[in-house]
What does this fold into?
Amino acid sequence: MAVGAPQLASNLHGLDVVAWRELPDGRFAERVPGALAFGPSEPTPAPTPPLVGLDAAGTALLSWATSFYAGPAVLIQAASRSAGGPWSAAETLASSQALSTSSVSTVRLEVSPSGTALLVWQAGQSHYLHRGPAGQWSEISLSGTQSALAPTAPVTSWRSPRDRFPSR
It folds into this structure.
């Protein structure tokens, strides 16, 4: 069984989620506040290892880059799930035709407690998408020294257990 690297996210209320790639599909599990273990995993719409973010209300957001080897196509896609609800259908945010390239790298996803999200990737140049709490994605441009990876609201994803659980 081939398994992709798990991606972890947590919100301010203690909800933890994990998403990973396990052939033949993506998988997702959550640990509710006070629980000692994650619940059973469920399939996701992500066909490749996804990035995951979580807002304060428990809405999870997945994003991923997909390459199809039948042709030089790359898709940047996303799906969301309200707390306890089903996954939305995968939404294509960008394609290799629009990006004029078949190579995507350095994909980052950050989600704030309010539900706004920022998705950043490299495909010849930097691309930035913003998702408001209502779920609409829109392209944004940054000027001067403004950084896409320094959102104005605190982010809820973490990079290692040390970030989430300080020494006891």
